[in-house]
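Obj: model holo form, ligand = zinc ion.
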Amino acid sequence: MFALLRPGRLAHIGTWFPSSCAVCGRWPSPPSGEPVCHDCRLAFAPATTRCPTCALALPPDKPACAACSTADHAFRACFAAVDYTYPWRDLLHRFKFASQPAWARWFASMMWDQPGLRDAALACDWWLPIPLSRQRLAQRGYNQSWELTHALWRQAQRAAPQPHAFGACSARCDVLLKVMDTAEQHTLDRSKRLANLRAAFAVNPAALPAMQGKSVLLVDDVMTTGATMHLAARTLLNAGAASVTGAVFARTPAPEVS
Ligand SMILES: [Zn+2]
Ligand SMILES: [Zn+2]
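Output (holo structure tokens):
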């Protein structure tokens, strides 16, 4: 009984009741529990061509962004559901800082609908979130990236034709660690982010033997410059992962990406 009263569970109670659309305010937001109405989703989340290795929005006739065409990159592939613009920027801020972890299920369903993500995700052995430091986790009470990772994993379970068809993938929050607290990344430019992050990630030593040769799906809520995702992916590859595929809910569009 007491388990039902834990804060993480109480947050999900809001998904059982109708609510107004978090964008246009229309009530109720159909179906019950979804934060954004169908019309707003159609209007603000159009199908978008994206760079296959960094998920940057591209013109439909362009196969890859300039940076990924010339530079070495850590990802086998990368997916994003929306651009990090209105209204998603505000919704993600509320998801992250205003105690709305239950929205992860809806965000994950939008990620799951992106072309190519399902096959790429199901080909990965481990589904890992970008971690928070202990201090940040204690402040916020939950890691929004883990909420998304777990919601994606549940989505895949529900979509599997038979239970055993989903046996190979596991979602884990104990593999990639944030061993150093860093300043709020969104306040820094790219060079400062890299310097700040370079020593921030590590693989749990207990997971190292099992890491060898694993294919990893790395999940985060937002990719802005890509510095966080790339350094985390490099950490996993240096620790023995065979490949890393990225999946984020929102991707900052050019020209903010450097
Ligand atoms: Zn709406
Ligand atoms: Zn790219």
